[in-house]
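Q: Structure tokens for this one, please.
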Amino acid sequence: MKYALIGCGRISPNHLEAAINNKLEIVGLCDLVPEHIKILLQKLEMEKENFPEYVDYHQMLQEQKPELVAIATESGEHTQIALDCLEAGCHVIIEKPIALSLEDADKIIAKAKEKDLVVCANHQNRFNKSIQKIREAVESGDFGKMLYGTAHIRWNRGPEYYKQAPWRGTWAQDGGALMNQCIHNIDLLRWMLGDEITEVFAYTDNLNHDFIEAEDLGLAIIKFKNGSYGMIEGTTNIYPKNLEETLYLFGQKGTVKAGGKSVNIIEEWCFEGQTENSEEVKAKNSEMPQNVYGFGHTPLYQNVIEAIESHTQPLVDAEAGRRALELVLAIYQSAATGKPVKLPLEKCATMDFVGRFDKKED
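A: Here is the predicted structure, written as tokens:
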């Protein structure tokens, strides 16, 4: 299967490595800054590889005709690139978030249906061993009635991170901590607790990053249609470095905690009448990745390839990407209005919140 990558920045090594691990034929690497491609290949010790390189993805699509394209550019460019790739007949993997507005997410979904193509939102943490094991327990009903769950993302992002790519932290191209760093765990919380949400109430703030436009802290309470509740705490203010990303799930008959830097370790595993040894479950389903990106890209790619070949939907399809986006935007809207927000949302975008933290009251 012919594969191309658009955007060769911070996350690109995970994508290229996943493509190689899945034996895809790499027919193009594209970035507006050619130096980024050189750095990418150096990181993977692949300087001698002679992959076709482009600065114009339109030219790459026309000349190479890839079957699968991964989009790992700044978030604000995802929509147009995805639509162009779909129009050219390519299946796509889109880095999170799938878009920065619900209208744009809907355009991607509609175009994929029109062209009968697969779209995957790159929420790779769904493929963590820990998360896959927890999901089995959810689907098996081991928790009994789900009561509530919490997602904590306690990370650090300093000035250098934003200097590396000035689009980060802007409303037009990114959003803040919730949209960029926290959306993976937000996706997991929503997925585990039943997906259907009735109401969200939230606060967001910019406490320590006056050099970005968006939030560095988000706190939210979520009411699910099935009667369970969720809580989100997401921040990039933790001193002096990333502390943890955790997911708690509490049911009538079960308690689980996934922790580590990126919910990659099962730290608590307790169910009524369980037959598995808790310590064995923890040991077998925990991983220690070198960074917060984990090991999920390779199995995510495998899942997408299987979906393409079997004409089915991947685990994290475009609709799932839209749901994660919708929840972040609902949090933004609630925090901006000071009121609970009802779901589903039909229209909302990061650009609706321009100037949100420009004039803060003392």
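A few notes: The chain has a mean pLDDT of 96. The domain at 2-125+297-316 is CATH 3.40.50.720 (Rossmann fold).
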